[in-house]
């Protein structure tokens, strides 16, 4: 193994091949991230970016003692994450199970279900703002169904479920593609053997399919958990955190604290907590599902 | 046996019909946006479900000039194109160096890149505003591209790293014996072999950068000449007055390019998504 760089030529190669990547990564990601550990203890504000006076634990005291909205947004984000992860994965897996059967339209349906994913969260949120506020009310008038006549996005709970619906609509197709690839890799003879032995569909799913595609489930749960917990674009364009601040996600709360209230230092401190929460949740989730993979 | 077969076919037919209905439900929002984008504001407010009586193309003409559509499209195109090409180039070179020269330093770099994938954008963005203004990257095309290069490196290096590990080193050694230098070896022999994973890297980064919102707001925000499509459309969504006729036409115009991109490359995109997600 070549563990040390020996010659000048080796050095030139190292700098040319690794240099650009390292340069941009350090300047754009590492340095700002590290600076956060300093700014989180200052009164840095958006009006004068050059000035940041050390204020010790002030920001932290504010967050832990005197910031109900931050903790409300944490609860909101946790609720949103749990519900949207469960529903989007159930829908994605169901779609994948259906579209791996010999349907005539399966190719075109894969394209259809994936489509929402190529449009970004901002524009999707705007599209659904129209659907919820104008489309739903028209459909409600025509059909008389009370579901469509609810004041969509106008109350905390319709705002919450509105975000859930759009998140699932956006995410399910992406996860479906991953599940389809995993299902295509399951050995046919094993499934046929189980069918001959008289396994019912739900037994087939629980005892054969799910253990076999456990790696894909780990990936999809990881991706949906981290996307849901970090949800921002959708939040901004669909509900703007409202009505009031009732549908503020953590990411949105940080954004509002810094870019609307101009309290950059406080925002940085919150963002640091946010980073710790994201790490804890995703690492715990991968650890749990990985263990299932081994035992399966 | 015959009846079993028949039963199977009937179930399959029911499943197929249900799947198609669900597909229509998935597309319904696009349908509503499309049909309403050619109505007048009054028609939209009276009845959002009906098919338009007259196609009111003026909405599109008005949006075209109101947001300077050609300029915004070109900006999005430039920013995405430049960033993606450079990400592929720099991340593949870095991954190659890490795989072929696994020194302790290079392994540390790799570890840092992978760990950084978990950092949420919010934990970087405010300090990034400071760093980019210090380095005079704000409001500049090269500035926003530099940001995308930084954020794009972790996943892209990771994907190339996994792929290059499977490329046999013997191919390169033969070329080295022939007297090629490392760069010749890389660009003539290794890089062409990386095409399958390079396509994945291009697709994942294109979808992300094209649709990105918050980073451009922070880094090019003040410079109207660099406004991208998602930023331009935001203009129609003020808090109080909603000009839905213009907003919907704007939404159609802003989403059309990426939908065309998807439909023309869908085979690669669906494969790329799978390849991009299968990680440790």
SSE layout and pairings?
The complex is a heterodimer of chains A (296) and B (280).
Chain A: H1 8-39, H2 58-65, H3 68-99, H4 106-114, H5 121-143, H6 146-149, H7 156-184, H8 188-196, H9 201-212, H10 214-229, H11 233-238, H12 250-260, H13 264-295
Helix pairs in contact in A: 2-13, 3-7, 3-10, 4-7, 7-10, 10-13, 12-13
Chain B: H1 2-36, H2 41-46, H3 58-66, H4 69-100, H5 104-116, H6 122-134, H7 141-164, H8 170-177, H9 182-193, H10 195-211, H11 214-219, H12 229-234, H13 244-264, H14 266-277
Structural overview:
The complex is a heterodimer of chains A (296) and B (280). Chain A contains 13 helices and no strands. Chain A is mostly helical and 296 residues long. Chain A has a domain at 68-125 and 165-295: MetI-like fold (Orthogonal Bundle). The mean pLDDT of chain A is 90. By secondary structure, chain B is mainly α. Chain B is 76% helix and 0% strand. Chain B has 14 helices and no strands. Chain B has helices at 2-36, 41-46, 58-66, 69-100, 104-116, 122-134, 141-164, 170-177, 182-193, 195-211, 214-219, 229-234, 244-264, 266-277. The interface between A and B is large, with 95 and 93 residues.
| Pattern of helices and strands of chain B | HHHHHHHHHHHHHH
The CATH superfamily title of the domain at 68-125 and 165-295 in chain A = MetI-like
Largest interface: A-B, 95 and 93 residues
Structural class of chain A: mainly alpha
**What oligomeric state do these chains adopt?**
heterodimer
Which architecture of the largest domain in chain B would the CATH scheme give at its second level?
Answer: Orthogonal Bundle
What is the makeup of the main sheet of chain B? none
Shape of chain B: globular
Helix fraction of chain A by DSSP (H/I, runs of at least 4): over 70%
Total number of strands of chain A: 0
Q: What class do helices, strands and sheet pairing of chain B give?
A: mainly alpha
